[in-house]
Each structure stands twice: as C-alpha cells, then as structure tokens.
C-alpha cells in the first residue's frame, strides 16, 4: 500500500513498488477514517509506504510502515544491486478501489499487460518527445493518474508534479502551465468548465493537447474549449476495470451533435454493444457496452461473486479467436453503460443502465451512498440521484425521509429539548414585539404584533376591533365568573372580559406583556387590580391552580405557537381538570390545517410581482408550506378529543363573524369545548339545503314555526372563494406563464355575503346564530345554524357532525418542529457521511421529504422527486439578508453559482449544495469583482458573513 500526498516521494514509491515486483494499492490520505480502515483491512497489505506526518492519520493495521521522508538511514542499508523481479505481463500492477453498490468499495485488479498496452497505444497515437512536459495532477486513487505518472517516464518526456490539492485551484494550474511550459494534461469536463471561465488562458501557449475523460463531454463545452485554446482536445472513455481508457475521439469544431462521441476502441481492444440476450444491436439502437481485449482487469479483489457477475464469458470468443489470435479475450466486462453506434461506426455514450454515475471523473455507486445514509439512526429511507445542472455538470442529491417524519411523536428524549427551545423562541419574539408598544396607544386595545402576512403592516384597527368583539361576545355569552386565560399577551381579551368576572387569572410566557398589563391595571379606571392575578409561565404549567377552580379557560390566538399537537393535548388535559362541571374551554384563532396550502398560495400571490413566473410562485408556496413553524389543526381533532376525554360533552366549531376578509376571518376558527355539561335533552335540527331556501322563506319559518334548531347547509363561503381559486390554480396552473393573469382574474371574484342578513334574522326572532364548517367538509361551504334562545336553562344541541373517529393526534396537525429538526439533521447527515465517504461522494444537497414517491406498482418514481430548484434547501439559520456591499456581492455570486433565489449571511455554502468545483467557480467569479480568497479559506469561512469579514 502507498499513502502519500502528491510529491516526489509518491513517484519514487510507485516506481519502487513496481520495480520490486509488487502491485500498489493507492490509499488517499484525504479519505475518512472509516474508508481507510476498510481499504487496509480488505487488502491486508504487508507493506505501507507513507510519511511520518501521515502516520497519525492511519488506523491500526498489520502492515510494515516505511516512511519515505524519515527512514532513509534504514533504506540505505538495503542491497543496492539491481535485480530481476521475475514479473510477467500477468502479474498485478495495481489495485484501485471504486465505489460499490453494497456500501463498500471494490478493488479492480489490473495487470501489467493491460497497462502497458494502454500506454503504448497512447504513445503511438499522441507521440511524446523529450521536449514534452506532462502535468500530473489527478489524485492517484483515480486511474487517470496511471498514464500521467508512467507515460512521460516511458518516453523520456518530463513529468511535472502539481502540489497537493493543486488540481482544485484553476489559477494555480494556469500559472503552473505557464511556468513549467506544460504540453499535455488531463481534465474531467466539470473541471475543464471551471478552467474555461478564467481570464488568463492566453498564458497557456505551451499546450499541445488536453485529454478529457471521466464524464460525458458536452459539445458546447468542447466548442468553448476551441474558442479559448489553440490546441488539440481528445475525449477518452474507459472504466477502471479495463486499464484506464478503451475508446478515443479527437474533438473538432465541426461536430454538431449535443454530446461528443467516445469514438473507437484503442489497440487490442474490442467493444461490443449488446442487448439483454447478449446479441449485437444494429446501428442507432441502444445497447449495453461490453469490453473485451488485453486490457481487462483480473477481477475484483476478494469479490469472486461480483467478478463472476461483471466479467462474463465472451460469446464471440470461439469464432474470433481463430481470426484475431491472442488479442481476443475469452471474457467480456459488462460496463453497465448504455451506448449506440453512429452511422460512421463511432460510439456515442448515453448514460448508465444502473444507478452508477461519474462525478468529476470518479465512478460512484449511488447505492453505496444510500446504504451508508440508511445506517444513520435518524434516516428512515433515502434515495441518491445525480442531477444535471444548467451548465451540464452532475451533482449528487440525497432525498431523505427522516425518522421524525415517519414517527407520529417525538421521542421522550427529544420532547423536552425541542418543546422548550420552540417555546423559548416565541418568548423571545414576543418580549421584543411587546417592547414596541407605543406610549400613546390605547392600553385596553393594544394590537402591537398583529401584522398582516400579506403586507407586513399592522392589521387595520377597525378589523381588529370587530375581531375582538366577536371573540369577547362568544366568551361572555356563557356569563363567566372564574376565568383562566392562557396566553393573555397585552390584555386584549382580559380588559374586555375581566370586568364581568369575579376572578380572572392570566398567564403568559412574556414578562414584557404581563408588565404592560400590570401597568395599565394600575392606571385604568376599571378597578380590576384586586380581581386579576397574573403569572409568568408556559401554557402547560398549572402549578398552584386548584382542580375545578374555573368555569372558563381561554386560549385565544395561542395554540398556533405550541410546538406540537402532543403539547396541545397535554395542555387540554390539565385544563379539563381545572374546569368545574358545566364549564367550558374557549380556543380562539385556531389555524385550519386544511387551509394551509390555500393560505400560503394566497399570500405569495399577493406579494408577487405580476411578471413572476408561475413556476417560481409555486416554488415559493412550496417553500413556505415546508417551513411553516406554527401549529395548524384540522377541526376534526376537537371532536376526536371526545374519545380521549369523555368529560368533553359538546364541541362547537365556530367560524369568525366579520364583514371583513382577512387572514383572521378566512383561515382560522374558534372552538368551544363544553366540560361535563348536564344537557337535559338534545334537539334535532331542521336542515335546509342552500339551494332550497331564500331569505324570505327562512324569515317566515323562524317567525311562524319557531323550530328550536334550524340549520342551512352548503352555503358558499365568499371569504374562501378567492383563496380556494388560487389553490386550484396552484395545483393545476394550466398554460399560463406569469401570475398576472390570475391576479387580474381574482378582481372579478366578488360574491354576496348573506352573513349580515342572517344575523338580522337571528336577532329579530330570538335566535343565536352559529356559523360552522359544512357537514360535507367541503372547504368552500359552511353551515348556518339558528338555535332558539331558552329563558331558563340555555342548552345547545350537538351541532358539530365532524367525524369522531380517533386517529393518531399527529394526523390532525402539521409538525412545526419539522423545519427545526431538518435544519439540524442536514448538517448531521453531511458530517456523518464525511467520516465514511470520500469528499467526491458527499451529496451536494439534501432534500428532506415526508415520503419517497412511488409509482402505482410500488417502484421509486424518480420523475416525482423534486429538483433542488423546486425545494429551497433547509438552512442552518433563518434568513438574514446581506447588509454590506461586500455581503451583497458575495451573495449574488453564491446565488448564481448555486442556482438559488436568495442567500442569507448565515447560510452555509456547502449545506446549500456547494462543493469544491462550485467553490472554485465562486473564487473565479469573485476575482473578477476584486475579491481574493482561496479554496481552503472558503472551507474555513463557509458563510457569507464569515467570508465577507475575511475579504
């Protein structure tokens, strides 16, 4: 084995191993510990050439360690005489490991015969002389390095060795080409693309030829090369299992097809394009590429089953062997690559048959990454795909279903931490918000913090006043005397309800809000100081509150800030215990889970410029849905609660009563839970369908017949017509390019609202009016229910007919903690993989999904997986916009290179999908703006804020 940085000692070490008759196993010192351990254990190398500085990085092994930078005194004592090793063409020259689908890499064993054939062909095809200079810059764990090392040494040309990691720095490479007068070098297409973006290529006049391999070469990149360079470009193809390269093609400016061909076979090599029956395919028909000839590897080290699977008997050997002799091999290697013959006999590469890809020249089994990801304790499922960017380069995307997505509840270990953290965040936010209260505002009507999601501006006072009257009317209708308000804020509800009560307890997590209430209690003329008690505590803390102490508990516009549905159940359980028989729990402003998508689609459409594309609008909506951090609840949850808490004897789901259309009246509802009520009897309702009644008819019915309960079902909800129209367009956008068409069409959606007329009828004939979601559960309909007021014992019929079938609570709510869990999981996954896989196998982006999409027959539906552009990658922090000119310019560069709409100053370059190639592109782009920093510096300063400070 040999484990060294790129150096003179590395070249000496390789030559020494071969001279001694050994086969070398390249062990890249930059590999993570787990991979180093596997390579040393799998190969059981007897000798390991390394350097003193690297010994501390190596895992425990049984090899004899020889340090080429410190053991020369011992080496000098060895016999200096030249000797014959006895090596034949069938002996191994090297074993190079490539990615394996089972989660472990596999070592391809290549013999001297194949390597020598490949090098001699290269010299015949591209003759080197003593005046040529070859640049060795490819990592020696990648087989292109073989010809970089040995071709110049076989022919008398000069070998120039790049510094360690120098292959990642295009500026350094240009200077090296100029200084050392390099004539031949190699690039994978992705790195060639980066090089072509540099401004100083005219300094590379010494170049005669550039060899490309490792990835498919797009023709537009080839043409760009000829615009910048006046030298040859050659496209080569071959797997590690067949001694580096097996086909070649000279590029030219005349080629017009989208992809550059891989050409024809090299010397003593046969290429077969075969169908599933191992029969040759006609010209133009796609087949799997099989390789025969002298360059075939012996097989995979310690993997006889895989060797037998991939290296198969050559069905054409008996007939061809007689004609062509020893160059015809009895075996073929099944590459898994798809290709076809062009009319002129050249071969065109078309991709992979399986899930193997090449990234920056490295062959990667996606299954290996999936296997390693699947071993992480927080990963339930994973799929890794190669995604082609607009520039033609390949990036790895990992799609992950986390355990937290599939578990219905947080684990006992997670719950306290995440609940406390989420509540703490809201506490900080509202302390800051309440400090903004202006001194001249009405202390009894302090609406600070009540801002519109559509505009960011405060909701108009008239709309908030009507909202408040609706809430207090519902609460006061039950004549409360002993009240507990959980989350009393700045006292909006308290100052309206407390004057009518004997005792009023208010709790809140914000000490600032409570101090404001105390201040106003002391100054107001309501004389409430004696009957109001205030406590600073979270919602689930009922310490010191006696059982059955209250007749009313209020949670108004509070539930959405709870961290999880389980937390709400916990609060309600304690609240029920604190309610006296016949009491009630009022939950106001509950956000409706069924309207989550409609809400965000509506908000984002309102915010959008008319020329915004529909596609971009949809992405914004999807992003907002995925990052929703408030708790939204299906109304059916509250009726299902009766299965858990039989003390709940009645559930009323109520729509807000308002003439205004805003997010408070469109997307929220109120709930009244009656606790241990003694209903003397239950009234059956007289139901009228919307289409079967008119206002005059209803008036006549209420006046003449006076039924105890009258319900009108299926009324169109005018407040939701526009949002649901937007939602339908979001799901099925039709053939529209921008949002302007939808925005203009919504202006025509004006429907009459019968709410005012229904209110007047109820008041005239002595009824109370309840508006609730339609029994049909259609989102665009509601039911109106008239209940005759009783003089002595008011009672309510069981009017809510939503399903009471209990499901797991999580089915009734979203998961506000999920974005937080995701933000923590993504860097954890990246770090986890970095300890187990080489850098080039780390996905550029991680996309967390609720589930992996499947086709109707249960297979992975790759087309349904979102691209990175469809989902804004989760960030480690909330978005903070760039502030300084340097931050703004750097953010623009990142956005362009990473293909994202916006970049915040705390966003991490590598967590957004960046890698070393994109890092080089950022550096090159930044240099044009006058910013100088290196790739190692970008690795150390991974956020805009850190990088701007460095610059």
From TrEMBL:
The keyword Phosphoprotein applies. Its cofactor is pantetheine 4'-phosphate. PROSITE patterns: AMP_BINDING (PS00455), CARRIER (PS50075), PHOSPHOPANTETHEINE (PS00012). The keyword DNA-binding does not apply. SUPFAM superfamilies: Acetyl-CoA synthetase-like (SSF56801), ACP-like (SSF47336), S-adenosyl-L-methionine-dependent methyltransferases (SSF53335). CDD domains: A_NRPS_AB3403-like (cd17646), AdoMet_MTases (cd02440). InterPro entries: AA_adenyl_dom, ACP-like_sf, AMP-bd_C_sf, AMP-binding_CS, AMP-dep_synth/lig_dom, Methyltransf_12, PP-bd_ACP, Ppantetheine_attach_site. GO terms for cellular component: cytosol. Residues 881-951 form the Carrier domain. GO terms for biological process: amino acid activation for nonribosomal peptide biosynthetic process; secondary metabolite biosynthetic process. GO terms for molecular function: phosphopantetheine binding. Pfam families: AMP-binding (PF00501), Methyltransf_12 (PF08242), PP-binding (PF00550). Keywords: Phosphopantetheine, Phosphoprotein. Gene3D superfamilies: 3.30.300.30, 3.40.50.980, ACP-like, Luciferase, Domain 3, Vaccinia Virus protein VP39. NCBIfam families: AA-adenyl-dom. This is Peptide synthetase. It comes from Planktothrix agardhii No31/1.
């Amino acid at each position: 084995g040999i484990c060294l940085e790129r150096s003179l000692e590395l070249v000496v070490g390789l030559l020494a191993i071969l001279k001694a008759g050994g086969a070398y196993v390249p062990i890249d010192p930059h590999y993570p510990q787990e991979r180093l351990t596997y390579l040393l254990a799998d190969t059981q190398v007897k000798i390991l050439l390394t350097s003193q500085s690297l010994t501390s990085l190596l895992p425990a092994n049984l090899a004899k360690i020889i340090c080429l930078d410190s053991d020369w005194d011992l080496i000098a004592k060895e016999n200096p005489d030249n000797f014959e090793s006895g090596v034949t063409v069938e002996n191994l020259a090297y074993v190079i490991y490539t990615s394996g689908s089972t989660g472990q890499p596999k070592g391809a064993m290549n013999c001297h015969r194949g390597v020598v054939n490949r090098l001699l062909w290269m010299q015949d095809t591209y003759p080197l002389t003593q005046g040529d200079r070859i640049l060795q810059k490819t990592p020696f764990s990648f087989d292109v390095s073989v010809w970089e090392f040995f071709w110049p040494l076989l022919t008398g040309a000069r070998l120039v060795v790049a510094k360690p990691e120098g292959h990642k720095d295009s500026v350094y490479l240009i200077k090296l080409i100029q200084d050392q007068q390099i004539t031949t070098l190699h690039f994978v297409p992705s790195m060639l693309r980066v090089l072509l973006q540099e401004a100083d290529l005219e300094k590379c006049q010494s170049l005669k030829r550039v060899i490309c391999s490792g990835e498919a070469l797009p023709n537009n990149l080839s043409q760009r090369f000829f615009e910048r360079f006046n030298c040859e470009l050659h496209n080569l193809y071959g797997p590690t299992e067949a001694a580096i390269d097996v086909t070649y093609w000279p590029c030219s400016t005349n080629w017009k097809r989208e992809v550059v061909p891989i050409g024809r076979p090299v010397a003593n090599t046969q290429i077969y394009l075969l169908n599933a029956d191992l029969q040759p395919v006609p010209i133009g028909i796609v087949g799997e590429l099989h390789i025969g000839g002298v360059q075939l590897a012996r097989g995979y080290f310690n993997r006889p089953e895989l060797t037998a699977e991939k290296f198969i008997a050559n069905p054409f050997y008996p007939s061809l062997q007689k004609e062509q002799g020893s160059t015809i091999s009895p075996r073929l290697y099944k590459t898994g690559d798809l290709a076809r013959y062009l009319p002129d006999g050249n071969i065109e590469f078309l991709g992979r048959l399986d899930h193997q890809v090449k990234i920056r020249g490295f062959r990667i089994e996606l299954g290996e990454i999936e296997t390693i990801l699947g071993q992480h304790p927080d990963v339930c499922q994973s799929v890794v795909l190669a995604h082609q960017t607009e520039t033609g380069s390949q990036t790895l995307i990992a799609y992950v279903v986390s355990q937290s997505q599939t578990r219905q509840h947080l684990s006992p270990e997670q719950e306290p931490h995440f609940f406390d953290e989420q509540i703490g965040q809201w506490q900080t936010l509202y302390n800051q918000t309440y400090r903004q209260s202006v001194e001249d505002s009405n202390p009894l009507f302090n609406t600070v913090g009540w801002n519109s999601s559509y505009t960011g501006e405060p909701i108009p006072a008239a709309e908030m006043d009507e909202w408040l009257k609706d809430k207090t009317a519902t609460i006061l209708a039950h004549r409360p005397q002993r009240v507990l308000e959980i989350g009393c804020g700045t006292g909006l509800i308290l100052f309206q309800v407390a004057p009518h009560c004997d005792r009023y307890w208010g709790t809140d997590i914000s000490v600032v809000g409570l101090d404001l209430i105390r201040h106003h209690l002391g100054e107001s003329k309501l004389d409430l100081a004696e009957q109001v008690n205030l406590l600073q505590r979270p919602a689930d803390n009922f310490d010191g509150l006696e059982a059955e102490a209250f007749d009313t508990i209020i949670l108004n516009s509070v539930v959405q800030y709870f961290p999880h549905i389980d937390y709400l159940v916990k609060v309600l359980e304690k609240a029920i215990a604190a309610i006296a028989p016949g009491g009630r729990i009022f939950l106001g402003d509950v956000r409706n889970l069924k309207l989550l998508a409609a809400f965000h689609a509506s908000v984002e459409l309102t915010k959008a410029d008319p020329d915004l594309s529909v596609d971009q609008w949809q992405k914004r909506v999807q992003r907002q849905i995925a990052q929703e951090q408030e708790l939204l609840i299906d109304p059916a949850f509250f009726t299902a609660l009766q299965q858990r808490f039989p003390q709940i004897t009645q559930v009323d789901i109520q729509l807000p009563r308002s003439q205004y259309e805003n997010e408070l009246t469109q997307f929220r509802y109120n709930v009244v839970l009656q606790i241990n009520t003694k209903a003397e009897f239950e009234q059956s309702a007289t139901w009228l369908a919307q289409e079967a009644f008119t206002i005059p008819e209803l008036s006549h019915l209420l006046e003449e017949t006076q039924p105890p309960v009258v319900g009108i079902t299926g009324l169109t909800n005018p407040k939701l017509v526009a949002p649901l129209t937007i939602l339908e367009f979001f799901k099925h956008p039709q053939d529209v390019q921008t949002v302007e068409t939808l925005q203009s069409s919504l202006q025509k959606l004006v429907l009459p609202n019968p709410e005012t007329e229904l209110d007047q009828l109820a008041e005239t004939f002595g009824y109370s009016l309840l508006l609730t979601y339609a029994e049909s559960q259609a989102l665009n309909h509601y039911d109106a229910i008239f209940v005759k007021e009783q003089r002595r014992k008011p009672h309510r019929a069981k009017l809510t007919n939503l399903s009471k079938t209990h499901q797991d609570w999580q089915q009734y709510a979203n998961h506000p903690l999920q974005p937080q869990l995701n933000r923590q999981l993504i860097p954890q996954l990246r770090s986890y993989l970095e300890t187990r896989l080489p850098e080039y196998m780390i996905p550029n982006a991680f996309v967390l999904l609720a589930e992996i999409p499947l086709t109707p027959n249960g297979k992975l539906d790759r087309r349904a997986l979102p691209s990175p552009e469809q989902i804004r990658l989760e960030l480690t922090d909330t978005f903070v916009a760039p502030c300084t000119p340097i931050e703004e310019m750097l953010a623009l560069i990142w956005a362009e290179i990473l293909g994202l709409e916006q970049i915040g100053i705390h966003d991490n370059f590598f967590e957004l999908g960046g890698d070393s190639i994109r890092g080089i592109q950022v550096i090159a782009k930044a240099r044009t703006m006058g910013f100088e920093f290196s790739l190692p510096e970008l690795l150390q300063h991974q956020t805009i804020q850190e990088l701007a400070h460095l610059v």
